[in-house]
């Protein structure tokens, strides 16, 4: 591939150079403006911002005026069809406004960037800048000490506090930073090396796009960076009258957070932006909305946000009934026991395997070795043995033999095991021996799932009375549900014990299980594993087991950020993921050249046979570097390794700092000290993102910062991030990775060829191999993992795209209901859709009687046509007639409701308006009563029409929210159950799309009918019409925000693999891993019998499975 790239560069050219070449003319234009701008006075420089805003306003003035006129017409017209046309025209005009604004911004860019650069320059050259004080200056001076007033002058200081750290402004934009600014304004990703000043670069496109007044969001990976950067850059923007704020300072749904979003520039973390979007779509009042339309976002460390977090949807959830009921603690001793028994047994088998292989018996030795590998693949003794000459090849040869013919021989290997671990797919499966062991002699059916079709047929064959038969079936379903939950609980506990290790995948802090990000090593606060796995780990670690929750709202970060009209980003490591950025987000990556050439010495990897040799070599190297006066940053991939290296350094009495998931809050302080002479810092490979390690002159002369990587990460991007800590702004430095064949990456993906090479070379323990070819081989292994992870993320996105299309429809309806502006159009569409469904279904059956009944049921009106007219007219004509009559009937009814309520509203307003601001008016449909909250003054001024609007709004919101929560639960269940389609050689995604469409269609139909039914029947009870009460503040629903760590599709498929034998739906789709009989192969012949005809036949099991699932046939066991 590298040869092909080299050939393409000769003929086509280097992409990064072409990208930069295309931007250079714009940079030259910026530089042409610099002398003109430099000659301006301070007041004239500030006046440029107002002039820019006027130009932008003039460009869109005609369209804005047209939008205002149309909005006024929409508010005054009662013609629903005209309203719908108006709103479509407004949406089109808003698109034109955006396009014209972007065109003006492109024209203003050179001059605007020159203004920002000159501002930065004046803050560097002057400790105080005097300007004529504006109202905005006076407002800022009241809260910020870097602006002082002196008569009619405002004095701007060049020193201020940035999130607790005093700074003096000392930065002016380089030419390469201007290139990065242009790239980001164009909606691209600027890849800039560490120390090139990405935070300063962002000021250029942020200033330019903030001129529109539509809002610019700058998104960071953590709240420290959001608070620091917003305070650090604030004076540059505020000097020009632009407001700036950070949402992470304020509580969700607060007035302060709403004000932060109203600022021209808003900083915040990716999680909080996403959660605020979800909270807005759960709001019950427009006053609770905090976000504005998504205009433009710049994502700092964009690869961390859009790549690393892509598999973690944001979820707002609430309690479910009996969510604290579970069997984790009851089943925990059984799982502990089976894990312990298998570990002891296989430790003995491994010893026997070593003896057999040493005696030359590779057949039995290989068989035993494969058993150990499938039962305890992470065992340290096994990993060490596999690093010996020829052992890895023997294991692979044996595994290939037993895997041939679709794993036909593998059950012989697994027969002695209690469970089998598939490490690559992170899956575990209980064997028949394990099932028997867990069930025990006392209750052999403890985990046995009943075969529903067979058991139901047995009950029906008894010819019992209906009540007795129903009771037995109910008991059967109850037993099925209990055992389903039990098996799911047991499977998750087994995963927790056998696959998840403390201080690697998670840590325990403050009596809570906290997930550690596999990419960054940081704690992912508030994130939980899904499907009960997190509860299982909590049971394992003896901490409080949190209750189960139900999803109320969810969105992936991928789909949240795709809502912005324009998106761009910056990072030091994006090129390796450029294909994914383009395919999913249509974001191009531009490599920005460094201001000074990189002087870092990147050395080829050192490869050892074992981890022990590798760590000894790392400590030896670190000791020598530290004594030479060079600061050392040691990169690790887990908490466990960082603590091990810390202990080894302590034994040698070498002072050091450790930064891992347990100490992540001290990150900024530890990284700040990392550049001192001889300082040793142990950190994760992604350490110090967003912070720079600054070196003294003594350190530079000693050779600069030394990077020592103790393991290659799965992703090249993470390794580049670690390397990028050294060589900042042309500083000297070095980077060296230490690798062993026992490392996870090498063990799973890359060690075969290297192991053979080391065997052929006759390398002994402690000897090392280093060559560029080896480093490239390791990078190829990393590429394999990256391609697999990209496939997983893309597949997940395809699933979430289905959900996202539905989310947009529901949230749009919800917003229209909340806002009230376009609600009447939506209600008219609901009436038409309901009329169409009733007409088409009853016309197809020629059922006039039920047609009349449905009209009375939903529209509370009799049929507007006779039976003969119903039979003779086309469905489309009937629908139009019904819609016209129904809507006219509805409007007249709402007028009557307004007339009935108005006298009471008038009396309260004229006599008690100082006592009431908002009032509660009851509405009923005859069976249910809804308390409608309305504004007293508005209802009085509109003669009761505001009350009717609030009635429509309350009903729509209540029914939409309830239906959406139920739909989300069904979609979660569907996503798991469709994985069974792989057994029928079908694509689960296609099944998911089809089934989810049907679910959504049914949900929308039910929402339409429920809303219409209540609205048409709803009226104010006469007996309570005079009892007006003051509205109380709505109590917020108890919810929690989490980022769910969800399994990939391979994992989901494995979880659901055995659930195919079940024909009944349970409350949660789980993996059925327990059998009454030995496992049947897909190609094995089986006997099946038709329940209706009694016909029997012999077919392959894979052909029988769909018939059994339909419930028409049952399996006959011999």
Overview of the structural elements:
This protein is α/β, with parallel strands linked by helices and 1118 residues long. 55% of the residues lie in helices and 14% in strands. It contains 39 helices and 33 strands. Strands 8-9-7-10-18-6-19 form a 7-stranded parallel sheet, with helices on both faces. A hairpin with a 2-residue loop joins strand 2 and strand 3. Helix 6 crosses helix 8, helix 30 packs antiparallel against helix 36 and helix 36 runs antiparallel to helix 37. The chain is flat. About 3% of the residues have low confidence.
**What global shape is seen?**
flat
Give the strand line-up of the largest sheet.
8-9-7-10-18-6-19
Mean pLDDT: 81
Radius of gyration: 34 Å
Distance between the termini: 57 Å
Structural class: alpha/beta
Q: Give the uncertain stretches in residue-range form.
A: 1046-1077
Strand elements, count: 33
In DSSP terms (H or I, runs of 4 or more residues), the helix count works out at 39
Helix share of residues?
55-70%
Q: What fraction of residues sit in β-strands?
A: 5-15%
For the biggest sheet, the summary is: 7 strands, parallel
State the main characteristics.
1118 residues; seven-stranded parallel β-sheet; alpha/beta; 55% helix
Briefly, what is this?
Helices cover 55% and strands 14% of the residues. The chain is of the alpha/beta class. The protein starts with a helix and ends with a strand.
């Amino acid at each position: 591939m590298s040869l092909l790239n080299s050939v393409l560069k000769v003929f086509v050219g280097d992409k990064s150079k072409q990208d930069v070449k295309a931007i250079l003319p714009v940079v030259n234009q910026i530089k042409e403006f610099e002398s003109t701008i430099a000659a301006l006075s301070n007041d004239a420089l500030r006046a440029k911002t107002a002039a820019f805003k006027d130009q932008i306003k003039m460009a869109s003035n005609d369209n804005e005026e047209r939008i205002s006129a149309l909005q006024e017409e929409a508010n005054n017209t009662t013609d629903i069809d005209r309203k719908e046309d108006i709103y479509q025209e407004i949406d089109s005009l808003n698109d034109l406004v955006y396009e014209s604004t972007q065109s003006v911004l492109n024209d203003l860019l050179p001059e605007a960037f020159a203004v920002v650069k000159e501002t930065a320059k004046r803050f560097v050259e002057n400790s105080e800048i005097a300007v004529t004080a504006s109202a905005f200056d006076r407002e800022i001076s009241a809260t910020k000490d870097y602006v002082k007033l002196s008569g009619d002058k405002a004095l701007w200081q060049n020193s201020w506090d940035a999130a607790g750290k005093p700074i003096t402004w000392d930065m002016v934009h380089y030419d390469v930073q201007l290139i990065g600014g242009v790239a980001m304004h164009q909606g691209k990703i600027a890849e800039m090396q560490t120390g090139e000043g990405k935070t300063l670069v962002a000021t250029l496109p942020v200033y330019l796009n903030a001129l529109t007044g539509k809002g610019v969001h700058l998104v960071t990976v953590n709240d420290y960076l959001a608070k620091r950067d917003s305070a650090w850059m604030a004076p540059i923007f505020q000097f020009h009258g632009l407001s700036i704020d950070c949402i992470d300072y304020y509580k969700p749904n607060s007035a302060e957070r709403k004000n932060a979003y109203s600022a021209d520039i808003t900083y915040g973390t990716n999680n909080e932006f996403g959660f605020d979007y979800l909270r807005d779509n759960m709001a019950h009042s427009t006053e609770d909305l905090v976000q504005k339309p998504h205009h433009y976002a710049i994502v700092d460390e964009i690869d961390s946000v859009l790549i690393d977090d892509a598999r973690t949807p944001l979820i707002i959830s609430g309690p479910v009934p009996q969510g604290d009921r579970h069997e984790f603690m009851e089943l925990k001793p059984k799982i502990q026991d089976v894990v312990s028994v298998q570990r002891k047994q296989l430790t003995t088998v491994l010893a026997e395997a070593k003896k057999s292989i040493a005696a030359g018996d590779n057949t039995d030795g290989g068989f035993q070795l494969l058993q150990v590998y499938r039962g305890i693949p992470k065992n340290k003794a096994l990993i060490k043995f596999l690093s010996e000459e020829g052992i890895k090849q023997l294991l692979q040869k044996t595994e290939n033999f037993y895997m041939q013919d679709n794993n036909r021989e593998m059950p012989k290997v697994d027969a002695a095991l209690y469970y089998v671990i598939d490490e690559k797919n992170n899956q575990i499966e209980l064997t028949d021996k394990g099932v028997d062991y867990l069930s025990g002699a006392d209750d052999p059916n403890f985990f046995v799932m009943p075969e529903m079709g067979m058991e139901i047929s047995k009950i029906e064959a008894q010819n019992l009375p209906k009540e007795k038969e129903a009771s037995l079936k109910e008991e059967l379903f109850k037993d099925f549900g209990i055992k389903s939950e039990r098996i799911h609980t047991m499977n998750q506990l087994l995963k927790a014990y056998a696959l998840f290790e403390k201080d690697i995948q998670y840590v325990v802090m403050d009596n809570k299980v906290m997930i550690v990000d596999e990419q960054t090593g940081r704690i992912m606060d508030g994130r939980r594993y899904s499907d009960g796995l997190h509860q299982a780990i909590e049971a394992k670690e003896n901490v409080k087991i949190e209750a189960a929750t139900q999803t109320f709202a969810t969105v992936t970060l991928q789909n949240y950020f795709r809502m912005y009209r324009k998106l761009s980003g910056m990072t030091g490591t994006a090129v390796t993921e450029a294909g994914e950025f383009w395919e999913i987000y249509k974001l191009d990556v531009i490599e920005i050249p460094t201001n000074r050439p990189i002087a870092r010495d990147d050395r080829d990897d050192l490869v050892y046979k074992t981890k022990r040799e590798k760590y000894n070599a790392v400590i030896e190297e670190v000791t020598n570097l530290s004594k030479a006066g060079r600061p050392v940053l040691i990169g690790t991939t887990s908490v466990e390794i960082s603590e091990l290296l810390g202990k080894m350094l302590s034994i040698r009495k070498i002072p050091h700092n450790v930064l891992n998931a347990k100490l992540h809050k001290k990150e900024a302080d530890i990284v700040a000290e990392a550049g001192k002479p001889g300082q040793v810092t142990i950190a994760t490979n992604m350490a110090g993102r967003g912070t720079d390690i600054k070196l003294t002159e003594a350190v530079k002369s000693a050779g600069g910062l030394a990077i020592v990587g103790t393991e290659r990460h799965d992703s090249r991007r993470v390794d580049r991030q670690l390397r990028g800590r050294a060589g900042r702004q042309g500083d000297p430095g070095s980077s060296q990775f230490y690798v062993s064949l026992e490392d996870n990456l090498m063990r799973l993906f890359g060690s075969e060829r290297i192991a053979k090479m080391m065997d052929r070379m006759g390398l002994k323990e402690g000897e090392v191999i280093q060559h560029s070819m080896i480093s490239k081989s390791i990078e190829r292994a990393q590429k394999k993992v990256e391609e697999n992870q990209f496939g997983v993320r893309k597949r997940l996105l395809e699933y979430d795209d289905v959900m996202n299309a539905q989310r947009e429809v529901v949230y749009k309806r919800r917003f229209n209901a909340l806002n009230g502006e376009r609600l009447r159009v939506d209600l008219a569409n609901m009436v038409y859709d309901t009329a169409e469904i009733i007409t088409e279904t009853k016309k197809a059956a020629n059922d006039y009687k039920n047609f009349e009944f449905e009209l009375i049921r939903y529209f509370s009106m009799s049929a507007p046509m006779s039976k003969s007219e119903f039979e003779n007219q086309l469905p489309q004509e009937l629908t139009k007639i019904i819609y016209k009559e129904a809507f006219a009937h509805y409007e007249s009814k709402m007028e009557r409701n307004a007339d009935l309520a108005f006298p009471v509203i008038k009396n309260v307003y004229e006599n008690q308006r100082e006592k009431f601001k908002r009032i509660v008016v009851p509405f009923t449909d005859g069976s249910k009563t809804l308390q409608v909250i309305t504004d007293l003054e508005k209802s009085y001024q509109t003669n009761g029409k505001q009350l009717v609007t609030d009635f429509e709004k309350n009903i729509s919101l209540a029914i939409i929210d309830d239906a959406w929560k139920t739909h989300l639960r069904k979609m979660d269940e569907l996503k798991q159950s469709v994985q069974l389609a792989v057994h029928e050689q079908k694509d689960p995604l296609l099944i998911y799309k089809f089934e989810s469409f049907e679910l959504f269609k049914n949900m929308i139909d039910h929402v339409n009918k429920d809303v219409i039914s209540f609205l048409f029947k709803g009226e104010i009870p006469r007996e309570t019409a005079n009892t007006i009460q003051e509205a109380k503040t709505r109590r917020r629903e108890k919810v929690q925000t989490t980022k769910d760590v969800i399994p990939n599709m391979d994992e989901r498929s494995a979880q659901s693999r055995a659930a195919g034998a079940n024909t009944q739906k349970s409350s949660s789709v789980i993996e059925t891993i327990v059998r009454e009989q030995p496992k049947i192969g897909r190609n094995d012949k089986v006997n099946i019998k038709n329940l209706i005809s009694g016909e029997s036949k012999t077919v392959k099991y894979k052909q029988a499975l769909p018939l059994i699932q339909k419930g028409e046939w049952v399996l006959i066991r011999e």
